[in-house]
Amino acid sequence: xxxxxxxxxxxxxxxxxxxxxxxxxxxxxxxxxxxxxxxxxxxxxxxxxxxxxxxxxxxxxxxxxxxxxxxxxxxxxxxxxxxxxxxxxxxxxxxxxxxxxxxxxxxxxxxxxxxxxxxxxxxxxxxxxxxxxxxxxxxxxxxxxxxxxxxxxxxxxxxxxxxxxxxxxxxxxxxxxxxxxxxxxxxxxxxxxxxxxxxxxxxxxxxxxxxxxxxxxxxxxxxxxxxxxxxxxxxxxxxxxxxxxxxxxxxxxxxxxxxxxxxxxxxxxxxxxxxxxxxxxxxxxxxxxxxxxxxxxxxxxxxxxxxxxxxxxxxxxxxxxxxxxxxxxxxxxxxxxxx
Length: 339
Fold this sequence. Notes:
Elements: E1 2-5, H1 10-16, H2 23-30, H3 37-50, H4 56-79, E2 84-87, E3 118-121, H5 125-134, E4 137-140, E5 148-149, H6 158-168, E6 174-177, E7 181-184, H7 191-198, H8 213-231, E8 235-240, E9 246-253, E10 256-261, H9 270-285, E11 290-296, H10 300-308, E12 312-318, E13 323-329
Parallel strand pairs: 1-3, 3-4, 4-5
Antiparallel strand pairs: 1-2, 6-7, 7-8, 8-9, 9-10, 11-13, 12-13
Helix pairs in contact: 3-4
């Protein structure tokens, strides 16, 4: 991840100076004068002069291209110190799309061509508009008008910046790991593997099958945007840490917990491992007082798992579908009683 900051974001840097992990990156950044006002003023001036009403849309793209060309020419000599860029290694286990950025002859500054690895900590609306125009994720205080706003830059940390960068670029979040599993959000690229999972024997005995591909695609687009984007939780995917293959699906839809594991891994403790992670996640990251599971009484393995995890049967939901609701309080318990 590459973080762009400017002089007005100096308090963010000072926030990080107490952290030895990030100290070297911010020290290198502090050696550079980071006033990018000339670039912003030039952009704004051309915008006002050359974009009359009816031509604004047509000329907008051309101006941005010209701006980038000028940036590449000027940075080595005149403006190399105008922008402060720090690169933070991405230690995630998820492989992102190919990095198509081109490295200019400008020290550690890279001119973005497809800047999915950039995030700009903006300090005004002008910077936010430029970031939007270049397709760069941005975050700032409310007055900057960013989609991802924080009350104070001191609230930011690397994990939050990385999640904003991923959400902006439609890269799924890593939710967490267990001993054997990686749990992360679904991306549209995962749909073929998801269909393979659902096609395995027994997988849809007690859950609804997927829609046809085009319908499922549209459904998942909306789900990613609204469920993940708004609530920051949802039904996630479960991958084997050893093989990297999709082996299940589990997560939260509000305070309902759901889970499914590939049949070749049944009775090996995978569902228990993943569900315990989800219970802990809900306890630490949501305001839910309790979780519940909707379980078909004929699904004896799921009934046994729910009881093992401390869920209790609170009665039938619907006799026609043989479903019962199992509930578990997740807040008012001692640490040694979590599982």
